[in-house]
Design goal:
heterodimer, A: alpha+beta, 2 helices, 4 strands, 35% strand, B: alpha+beta, Porin, Butyryl-CoA Dehydrogenase, subunit A, domain 3, 3 domains, 17-stranded antiparallel beta sheet, elongated
């Protein structure tokens, strides 16, 4: 690794690394063999914006000899935040089942409506803010 | 990543969160910026590295790169990377490299017949952003853990580290060389052969052959191994085998030649602590011989005999995130020369291990083990000397050639194998106990995930939020399966009728709206419109909509929801009534309020807290395992080891020399925070004249970190 000396900076022997992309995949089969959890996180940095894609699936089967069918719960979440030292300071309180339901119901429907230009961005923001804020 | 939509619940949620508060942006505040290290890429304006010169070829790292095929895989990939030395950094190139590495190191498809959990991670980092240049590194991390819930089964991680690395597939034929050293056994070498049947026949899984020997020690076993998995129980394993071993002591050898048939039942883990129960039985028969002369033995001990015996045994293993407890009890009844009950042996073995962190990825492992045994004899019936208890720094197992780690002799690491045996009744004890303590603090380690990831609050925030959302989604799913949920759905038509009536009343009253009450009127109309939209979807008979999605629209109507569509109608329209002074609107609003109350009452009958608890319990194990991987696992670690042992055998010699103490130290290599290889030296503190000053010790053990 070539390191051209800089007259103004002292470079640490192990320069600090900055994560620009990250992907984590996790699969767990419960010990009774009847449930499977798949959890994945992907982080992608594009300039000033950080995009998180988060995936969660839960599969269930009645007997160990059965195949796992389709997921009983499957969630794919795409979150974009501004790259910012305080981005992690986003308020975080435990979501309720109703809030989770509203995320997959009204907010998801409004997101589709926004994409189809059936509602305006302020209307979507208000809806999303009501549920996520 | 499987992105296939499912009929049960499919969600693609796009949320854009822009932090607009100026106070959160240092560039827009009067607070001084924190100083940044020279070359810190986090300090690059706008986080944009586009056009930076890539100083050197990207580094491609894998913790198991020492395995030739992994090394080769990495070497083959390097020329395909788009990011290259002396070329401008480009985000699209980095994404292409990332996608290539993801496809190369993706988790293998799970075979429904195995139960591992798997984890892989890929991290791309930039560093040393000076002089408009930077360095690029890719870290690839893969791990896979084994299906068997018992602790011992996971010790094979040392045999096949590449399996833990998730970089190979199990083989049907495995030949493993073995070698070692012990002061009693001298240098020995041998091998272990396992042939796994491609197709299970009559529950037969595999054939095993083991052999090892030195100039003083010989051991050979052959076995047919089978198993079957009764539904909802666990595993029942059987073994038909032959064993021969000749074990040296300080004076003479102990030789055993026998056939045995064995059954071991292992339950599935149950309860939060993952309790696994094991039990079984064994029949055996053969010859026990020794080189001891009658003068070396007590009057109730014989040097050699044909024998038969039966054993029964049981045990439990369980633990919490930072603790692991194993207990085993065994009973053997045997006869010299035929069938009967000339002698009985009782063995108890318990270990308690725990660990606690003293720094980032720096745990202290503490292991304790207590073992005790006793022999009872029928009147006038001698016991074969090979069945008496011989102690030292090597463990003899109650279930030889089995994964169940059931110790059956006093272990004291300061005395060579089987040389702790002198009693007032000659060689071998008829009772014993031993206690072993091992303390190993990690001093050198390589965390599984780089600190840049695990120490990032952004990362941790996303992980925590997502697990909480996962539990909430699951709770929502359970609520829709509550029998009382159907009652909630039956209330929706009444709410719709009431809302329709209110909308009609508002339409009729629109001509009497004045400037003074217009804002109240508009708020009521707006609330009715939103509630109507949510209700229409909630009530719609759409076979393609899952119950979870429909529930979201029901939730949006309720006080418990975030949108509170109906409470907003009730609130806005009740505020409007006195200002509008319209009887029809007031009555219609009252009907909506009553219908909403009915809906709330029905919803209140659902066991909501039970659903939340069930969901949290369901995911607690998954979340715990994930967090342990993220925050605690090291790819490898090195620890100094400190040990203390004490052991005692009876009947005591004159002067009470049955009790021994050993202290020592050594070094431990741990793979994946899990499998421990320990070597060291222990000093014999109160040795007898004929005993040495101490002994080398060597062990393979596991830390049950992943609970």
């Amino acid at each position: 690794m070539s390191r051209s000396p800089s007259p103004h900076a002292v470079v640490p022997r192990h320069p600090k690394r900055t994560v620009v992309s990250l992907a984590i995949n996790f699969e767990l089969n419960t010990t009774n063999g009847l449930r499977r959890v798949i959890f994945g996180l992907e982080k992608d940095t594009k300039g000033n914006q950080v995009e998180w894609q988060i995936h969660f699936s839960l599969f269930e089967r009645a007997k160990r000899t059965d195949d796992f069918g389709p997921a009983i719960v499957k969630v794919d979440v795409d979150v974009k935040t501004e790259l910012h030292p305080n981005a992690e300071a986003l308020a975080h309180s435990k979501p309720t089942p109703e809030q989770a339901g509203e995320v997959v119901g009204p907010v998801a429907e409004d997101a589709k409506a926004l994409k189809a230009k059936q509602i305006t961005k302020p209307e979507f923001d208000e809806s999303a803010q009501n549920v996520l804020g | 990543m499987n992105r296939t939509e499912t009929p049960a619940l499919g969600l693609v949620l796009f949320v854009s969160l822009s932090l607009s508060a100026a106070a959160q942006n240092p560039a827009e505040t009067s607070e001084p910026s924190a100083p940044v290290a020279a070359g810190d890429c986090a300090a690059v304006p706008d986080g944009s590295f586009e056009g930076f010169n890539v100083r050197s070829e990207p580094i491609l790292r894998h913790p198991f790169a020492f395995l030739p095929w992994v090394r080769r895989q990495l070497d083959d990939l390097k020329p395909e990377l788009k990011i290259a030395k002396n070329r401008p950094y480009n985000t699209a190139d980095e994404r292409a490299d990332f996608a290539l590495l993801q496809s190369e190191f993706k988790l293998p498809a799970t075979d429904s017949g195995i139960l591992p959990f798997k984890f892989n991670a890929l991290v791309a980092t930039v560093s040393d952003c000076r002089d408009h240049a930077l360095d690029v590194e890719y870290d690839v991390l893969t791990t896979q853990f084994f299906k068997t819930p018992t602790a011992e089964a996971q010790e094979q991680m040392f045999d096949r580290p590449e399996q833990a690395a998730n970089v190979t597939r199990p083989k049907n034929f495995k030949l493993t060389p073995t070698a070692g050293y012990n002061a009693s056994d001298s240098f020995f070498a041998g091998g272990r052969l396992r042939a796994r049947l491609k197709k299970k026949t009559a529950s037969l899984d595999s054939i095993g052959l083991d052999g090892a020997g030195s100039d003083t020690y010989q051991s050979a076993t052959g076995a047919l191994n089978g198993s079957f998995d009764p539904p909802s129980f666990g595993t029942i394993a059987w073994n038909l085998g032959y064993a021969y071993q000749s074990l040296p002591t300080d004076k003479a050898s102990l030789t055993e030649s026998r056939f045995n048939g064995r059954l071991i039942a292992t339950t599935q883990p149950f309860g939060k602590s993952g309790v696994v129960a094991r039990f079984g039985g064994q029949f055996e028969g053969g010859h026990l011989q020794s080189g001891y002369q009658a003068a070396d033995l007590g009057p109730e001990t014989i040097s050699a005999t044909a024998y038969s015996s039966a054993r029964i045994y049981s045990g439990l293993t369980f633990g919490t995130k930072h603790t692991a407890l194993r207990t085993s009890y065994g009973f053997e009844v045997g006869a010299n020369g035929g069938l009967g009950a000339d002698w009985r042996r009782h063995l108890g073995d318990a270990s308690f291990d725990f660990w606690f962190p003293i720094g980032d990825h720096r745990p202290v492992q503490v292991e304790t083990r207590f073992t005790a045994g006793a022999i009872q004899q029928a009147t006038g019936a001698p016991v074969p000397v090979a069945k008496r208890f011989f102690g030292g720094n090597t463990q003899q197992s109650f279930l030889e050639d089995d994964d169940w780690d059931f110790r059956a002799n006093p272990v004291i690491r300061s005395i060579p194998a089987r040389q702790f045996n002198l009693t007032s009744a000659g060689a071998g004890g008829d009772r014993f106990y031993s206690f072993n303590l091992t303390v190993a603090p990690v001093v050198v380690r390589m965390p599984l995930l780089p600190g840049e990831v695990t120490n990032s609050d952004d990362f941790q925030s996303q992980v925590d939020q997502q697990w909480d959302f996962n539990a909430a989604f699951l709770a929502a799913n359970y609520i829709t399966k509550d029998p009382k949920y159907r009652d909630v759905l039956t209330k929706l038509p009444a709410v719709r009728d009431a809302l329709t009536g209110l909308k009609a009343a508002l339409d009729a009253a629109s001509g009497s709206v004045t400037a003074a009450n217009k804002s109240l009127f508009d708020a009521c109309v707006s609330a009715v419109r939103l509630a109507g939209r949510r209700l229409d979807t909630a009530i719609k008979d759409d076979p393609t909509a899952s119950a979870d999605v429909q529930y979201g629209f029901v939730a949006a109507l309720l006080e418990e929801g975030r949108e509170k569509a109906l409470p907003k109608v009730v609130d806005a329209c009740q505020k409007l009534s006195p200002a509008l002074k319209n009887q029809s609107v007031a009555e219609a609003a009252k009907k909506v309020s009553d219908a909403f109350d009915d809906l709330e009452t029905a919803y209140g009958n659902i066991d909501r807290n039970g659903a939340i608890k069930k969901a949290n319990d369901e995911l607690a194990f998954s979340k715990g395992v994930f967090n342990t991987i993220i925050h605690d696992l090291n790819v490898y670690s090195i620890s100094p080891v400190f040990i203390f042992d004490t052991a005692r055998i009876w009947p005591q010699t004159v002067g009470g020399q049955g009790l021994r103490y050993g202290v020592g130290s050594g070094i431990r290599l741990t793979l994946v925070s899990h499998a421990n290889l320990t070597i060291g030296y222990a000093r014999n503190l109160n040795r007898l004249p004929q005993e040495g000053s101490g002994a080398l010790f060597f062990s393979v053990s596991i830390t049950e970190l992943l609970r």
